[in-house]
Amino acid sequence: MLDEKVKAPGAQNLSSQICFFIPSFGDGGVERMLVNTARGMASLGARVDFIVKQTNAPYLEQLPENVRLIELGDGSQRSITRRFREYLQTHRPDAVISAKGRDNSIAIAAKKVAPTETRFYLRPGTAVSARLDNRRINPLRRWWKLRGIRRLYAQADRIIAVSEGVAEDIARSVRIPRSEITVIRNPNITPEFFQMGAEPPEHPWFKNSSIPVIAGMGGLRRQKDFPTLLRAFTKLRTHRPARLVIFGEGRQHERLESLARELGIAEDVDLPGFTRNPYSHLSRSAMFVLSSLWEGSPNVLTEAMALGTPVVATDCHSGPREILDGGRLGKLVPVGDPESLARAMQETLDRPRPAADLKAATEEYTMEKSAGRYLDTMGIDIRNADTGGHPEVSG
What we know:
globular
């Protein structure tokens, strides 16, 4: 049995329109963007189900009352597939959206018994080839993984990529026709976004400090390459006073603190872990730096720009070059190059880009615009939807 955590009276009796299928829901950027997308669709009048294994997870409390939250409970992949098939046959959603590897496999396996009107959309959030390349797996295993992804993606009704770079990578490495891939920007900018940016920051370094504070943010893992950021900051410090705060949690925390001590910058570097409101800090940062080895569409880079904060990023695959308009809106530097990164940070502190230009470049990343693009792509017309009827489906 599926456990329906219904958040609105009577919602359990309404037929479903769109289903987000994310049993492996965690605490990352993918999950946050999916919650924002569901919120946006619901605000536009669509009916939304959100299926997870457990409902005691971050971000889920942000779902509005008119989104039905369904808990699968723990179990094997086979049992989850069975429960999801039961859901499909009972509720007959018009569209299913899945976004993570194993979840995609379960969704496509369940598609074989789904109602014919249910369409399946997979949402890759990063460049497939870059992820595999940076894991340094042997060529045979890489070929085998790409073959599996190709077979999986070919069974979806459409692929929705978060950036042009991700779309092009899939078309090239997975050999899915580019015409079958739609690009929809992430819904970073929510209705409460700017209000959160205006809140007082918790970290003392951001409170009226005469010393510029540089921000880094993300999971403390290899992909984000924070060691390069620490080395670049060390070089910057030889030219001017500055401080660096890296927000995020992960297994590299102790390693990064140790490296800061080795580099002699520990007193001006802080790794405070998770912060309830990153935007209040981003809005007051002298600069945000993205030092990643690879990305899909780096959310925090877009969010910093939306707040008018100057940015510097590695020219990794993919996302930064696209978001920064080829370097017009912020310096792009080679991956893993502390010297170039330090120079770009110095130049950005000296000559920051106009805040108005940065903000204007993020207009396509609002929750409502992104959700509307999803509905258009899925052929779902909610213009005649109301709280008591089923939205019209076109196409």
